[in-house]
Design a protein that fits this description.
Layout: E1 11-14, E2 34-39, E3 57-63, E4 75-76, E5 87-88, E6 101-114, E7 118-124, E8 133-139, H1 142-145, E9 164-166, H2 169-172, H3 177-188, E10 203-207, E11 210-217, E12 220-228
Parallel strand pairs: 9-12
Antiparallel strand pairs: 1-2, 1-8, 2-7, 3-6, 3-8, 4-5, 6-7, 10-11, 11-12
Length: 232
């Protein structure tokens, strides 16, 4: 008998990404990326976090709120395969699913008490754009969640950095020092759609209140401009 369940947004991520473009394709690929989990007013009870400080990593259960569709498809085109092959949706982590939910393991970097938002969680390695709704938070348990013998199918190894990043010093100066390594790593992972190979095309995405524009030729990504004024 079909059933439907309603769920509440318990928190939202506050990250450096104003949109989907540029966000790492999996959590943990760019550990230098730091974000905050800000709880909704109803859930700003510090008792709900009691004991969480003892864990180094947590799971974020969240919603692909920018990818909600009325219909679903049984097959999708994973970017990892260049967008040229179709696989079953349940064999991928595509956002286009019957229920647009996602799961990310992130480093718990600390808890911070704020006047405006109560206690927030500082996390590293998140793959969520700013404002993404979070449905639940669970502690990461190494004995249960880490399976060294597991087989990863077509994505058995992380994509890793594939591009050399070139950027003029005067452009890097526009990026806050504590965010430069994170941005460099995001660019080195090649944020372009897998099927894009036009060396003359200039791409851009919002990061930490900046607009980063770049082009790629061969294995080199060249930052063309870094403009101010794009708030996440």
């Amino acid at each position: 008998m079909p059933q439907e369940f309603s769920m509440k947004t318990i928190a939202r991520i506050r990250s450096d990404f104003a949109g989907k473009f540029g966000v790492p394709r999996q959590s943990g690929l760019v550990e230098a990326l730091e974000a905050r989990v800000v709880f909704e007013p109803e859930y700003r009870n510090p008792a709900a976090l009691r004991g969480l400080e003892g864990f180094s990593h947590i799971w974020l259960v969240w919603v692909f709120d920018q990818a909600v569709r009325a219909e679903w498809s049984p097959t999708v085109r994973p970017p990892r395969l260049g967008g040229n092959a179709r696989l079953g949706v349940f064999a991928t982590r595509s956002p286009f699913r019957p229920n647009p939910i996602a799961l990310s393991a992130v480093t718990l970097a600390g808890m911070e008490k704020t006047r405006e938002w109560g206690t927030v969680l500082r996390v590293r390695g998140a793959d969520l754009m700013d404002g993404t709704p979070i449905l639940d938070i669970k502690p990461y348990l190494p004995y249960a969640d880490c399976r060294p013998e597991a087989v990863g199918g077509f994505a058995s190894a992380p994509a890793g950095e594939t591009l050399a990043v070139e950027c003029l010093p005067e452009l890097w100066e526009k990026v806050p020092p504590e965010r430069r390594e994170a941005l460099r790593a995001v660019l080195a992972l090649d944020p372009r759609p897998r099927y894009q190979e036009d060396p003359g095309r200039v791409y851009g995405f919002g990061f930490a209140g900046l607009e980063v524009r770049f082009s790629v030729e061969g294995g080199v990504l060249r930052v063309r401009e870094i403009l101010e004024g794009t708030e996440p």
